Amino acid sequence: MAIHGLGEVDQQYDGSELRIGILHARWNKEIIESLVKGAHDKLTELGVKPENIIVESIPGSFELPFGTKQLSEKYEKLGKPLDAIIPIGVLIKGSTMHFEYICDAVSKQIMTLNFDLNKPIIFGVLTCLTDEQARQRAGLGGHNHGADWGAAAVEMATKFR
Ligand code: DLZ
Fold first, then answer.
1. What is the pLDDT of residues 45-76, one digit of tens each?
2. Can you tell me the distance from the alpha carbon of 3 to that of 117, in angstroms, rounded to the nearest whole number?
3. Whether 59 contacts 27, CB under 8 Å
4. Chain mean position to CA 124
5. What is the CATH number of the domain that holds 138?
6. Is 143 a catalytic residue?
7. Number of domains making up the chain
8. Among 69, 80, 97, 125, which residue's Cβ finds the most Cβ atoms within 10 Å?
């Protein structure tokens, strides 16, 4: 099965003036770490200064929307607003309806946060049926979607600044 990235990028974006937040869940640790690294590496490749990449964690994906809002407000108060935030989580289906409820609630709330916070909040959540599917999408055998999320953050923050 082909797993693609962002597709053709319309131009090279310069992230050197940006401050970007990465907020990640701690469930599915190895996969999360690879996604965070993929996003971080892409941000620096596009010019974002390492000191302007803020990485924080929360317990699980359910906490991502509230954590993202808090992170955004914290840096607003510090006078160092974040230009975009990448919430990163990995949800893997189990044997109950837990997965469906969390995927639905988290994805809708992350979408809403874009408008509430009026800044790009990237959808950095893998919603997979198996551990293997998640690994394939996290650069542990296949393409690392974290890199796409980093690129999307820089493009969105630059284009609409
Ligand atoms: C409880 C739970 C389960 C079963 N599975 C996952 C998962 O696959 N990925 C993830 O990020 N978090 C999971 N969690 C934890 C919830 O997201 C949340 O942290 C707890 O329910 C506490 O609110």
1. 999 999 999 999 999 999 999 999 999 999 99
2. 31
3. yes
4. 3
5. 3.40.50.960
6. no
7. 1
8. 125
